[in-house]
Amino acid sequence: MVCNHPDFQIEHDYLMYTKDYIKSILEISEKEQENYEDSMKEAFINLDYLDSSLSYINILTNARLLDMLKNDLASLIKVKDKPYFGRVDFLKDHTHTPATYYIGKVSLYRKDTQEPIIVDWRSPVSNLYYDGRLGDVSYQSGETTYHGKLTKKRQYMIESGELADIRDIDMTTRDELLQKSLQETSDKRLNEIVATIQAEQNEVIRADLTKPMIVQGVAGSGKTTIALHRLSYFIYHYQDQIKPEQMMILAPNRMFIDYISESLPELGVDRITQATFAVYAEQVLGKSLKIYPAVKELETMINGTKVDKEKQAFIAGFKGSVAFEKVVLNYLTEVRNHYLPDRPFKLEQFKIMSEKRLKQLFIKEYRYLPFEKRKEKIVQLLKKSFRTKKDEVLKHIEEQFEAQYDKIAHRVKDPLLRKETVSDLLDNKAFLRERVKKLTVSEVTKFMKEAEKRSVVQHYDALFSDRVRFISYLETPLTPQQLDWLFEEAESMRKKKTYSLDDLPALLVLKAKIDGIDPDLKMKYVVIDEGQDYSVFQIRALIRATGTKLFNVLGDVTQGIYSYRGISDWDQLMNQALPSAQDLYLKKSYRTTIEIMNLASAIVSLGDKVYPVAEPVVRHGDAPAFYQANETKDYQLVLKELIEGYLNKGHARIALISKTTAGTKNIKTILNGLAMESQLLGETDKIEADIVIVPVHSAKGLEFDAAILVQFDEQYEATDQDLKLLYVAITRAMHKLDFVAPERSMFLLDAIQR
Ligand SMILES: Nc1ncnc2c1ncn2[C@@H]1O[C@H](COP(=O)(O)OP(=O)(O)OP(=O)(O)O)[C@@H](O)[C@H]1O
């Protein structure tokens, strides 16, 4: 590429200067690293095992410095050939010379002058690159706002360490770098967007970090990518206060986690906790449960009978609702009221603590604690009172004896009878004293054996074991049919010792209220991708378990293929779970070509419901085509031709997507017949092959250079559920999309106006 930009030489020199500076820093740091390592070795040699404090501190200090150095070195090494991607020139008000900032993935300052050579993309001034148009601008750093003019905004294409091109961005020439980046194949994409983050995305990344956030974004609008960048931005700002493990990203499945983790190291967020909801719930419960796969429920919703679908939708919908949370909480109130033995704690006949006082402590005074912790506190208290009260009881026995003795002395006149009565009294007293003396604190333990001891899972089972009680916990009545469904389901699952995803929120609440949550599993910041698949109760339970409301939920209701369980309306989530959340929208779609995105929008518009329409970023490609196939040999012929064509065009990752799992098996047989290497993707698999075969529901969240939607005998109907499935399938393709089936109508293509 020949670059004719007038500043080419100046820019070339700056790049060389930066690269040289990085090289020298790396050399010096490597030496420093050796020094630290030597100091550590020395400290180890001098380690005096009897008085090791100094040497130990020495080792720790060096180890920490070494760690920091290694981290800094690792990030510098990563950027050494492409140290920055953009530049802004900012003329601060009342000054005459603009300051120039080169923007990259890390910061680098000259050691002697502290002048920035590169500024981190997450730093305040970098906001101008993403947000500012030439002219009057401002940016905020800490409490201060800087006003001025953005006089230059420039992008660089640096290839193999050499400056290949320069683009000045103004109103007219925009997004060339974005266009170039979007044309890249899938393997190169996720990491590189930092140079091309768009204004609406930048707003999401930099929005108030102290508030929860709900991001509604169309398919391919960068929700996953932007969530990762916001995490990176969060870490940059809070690195001294929050450990990466205290941040969690929840993704729909293992496959998706593997897919995003590839990009995490690049963003410096690789140590954050990554899990699926079920995995996190199992960690919290401290128990692995047999979980009925959510996709099986989904398949019932796709293929089941009308009644099965109705039943499934009711159960999942109810168990994900605030109404069910109320049932669980009402159940817990009853458990709480009888958690401790319903009697006073006594030493022999002497009351150490009344039932009323025990209840008062348990229900009122320790109400901020989980039940088990309240019990522990009361055990401590009882043990303490036991020790002090034991002497009091002995004294009391003595006093009681005195009083009774006096009474006998006065009232019993017959000396013989009096002698006998006194002798009995003495025996009783001695007996009682002996018994009390022998009592130990183990009395408290014995007493507490009568307290509640069911496990969290047993409590959950108990909730569904008594219909009358269950009804008494309901705040809004259910119909007998609905109750039958709930109880039949619970019974059949109990027999199989299986739970469904829909049972986990209730289990989390029970765990949080009864045992409490392990502090290591508490979080400070939680990102939920594919948030439309979560129920309100699921999010509320997560808030309770993680101990934070700092949630960033991203989703797209058009892709809500689990909508019978999840969120169909963001206002509901906002009102019922995250009332203080900021609400942001991503309207533009970056993944796909205009032709593919328009087709996807036309498909969803066939339904009765209205969903947000994506605005594709201007990038044209081939129109998606339909190929007819009836016999196996037709499928073989078409698929072979299409796949080979894609590969020849350099498309690195290809997906063959079918509506159901059964369909994917047929595709696999066909590709095997062609001796074409491919991978049939299960929920928990990692993508390993270039050609993957996947059912729509598992493809959600993923993207491929090219996709072929293949159907055999079943078709997509014009129902809300199927339209969403088809929408998800279509929007997985980045560059190329084709359809193969016996009829166009199987993809509803005939219904679309052309
Ligand atoms: N600003 C950008 N510059 C370059 N590429 C971008 C940008 N924003 C998004 N992309 C690309 O668009 C594609 C879609 O992004 P992503 O998967 O994050 O979207 P999504 O909203 O999570 O999609 P979906 O909901 O369909 O799963 C990715 O390839 C991503 O790299």
Kindly describe this structure.
- The structure is a single chain.
- The chain contains 28 helices and 25 strands.
- The chain has 754 residues and is an alpha/beta fold.
- It has four domains: 4-198, no CATH class; 207-335 and 519-586, 3-Layer(aba) Sandwich (Rossmann fold); 345-448, no CATH class; 594-751, 3-Layer(aba) Sandwich (Rossmann fold).
- Strands 1, 2, 3, 4, 5, 6 and 7 form a seven-stranded mixed β-sheet that branches. It has a six-stranded parallel β-sheet with strand order 10-9-15-16-8-17. A six-stranded parallel β-sheet has the order 20-25-24-21-23-22.
- Helix 24 (594-604) links the parallel strand 18 (588-589) and strand 19.
- Bound molecules: adenosine-5'-triphosphate.
- Adenosine-5'-triphosphate (ATP) binds next to helix 4, helix 5 and helix 7.
Task: List the domain count as a whole number.
Answer: 4
What small-molecule ligands were found?
Answer: adenosine-5'-triphosphate
DSSP strand (E) fraction?
Answer: 15-25%
CATH-defined fold name of the largest domain = Rossmann fold
Structural class from helices and strands? alpha/beta
Q: Could you say what the CATH architecture of the largest domain is?
A: 3-Layer(aba) Sandwich
The dominant shape is globular
Determine the fraction of residues in helical runs and give it as a percent range. Answer: 40-55%
Major beta sheet summary = 7 strands, mixed
- According to CATH, what is the class of the largest domain? Alpha Beta
- Cα(first) to Cα(last) distance is 41 Å
Instruction: Count up the helices.
Output: 28
> For the CA atoms, what is the radius of gyration?
34 Å
- CATH homologous superfamily title of the largest domain: P-loop containing nucleotide triphosphate hydrolases
Give the overall average pLDDT.
87
Count the beta strands: 25
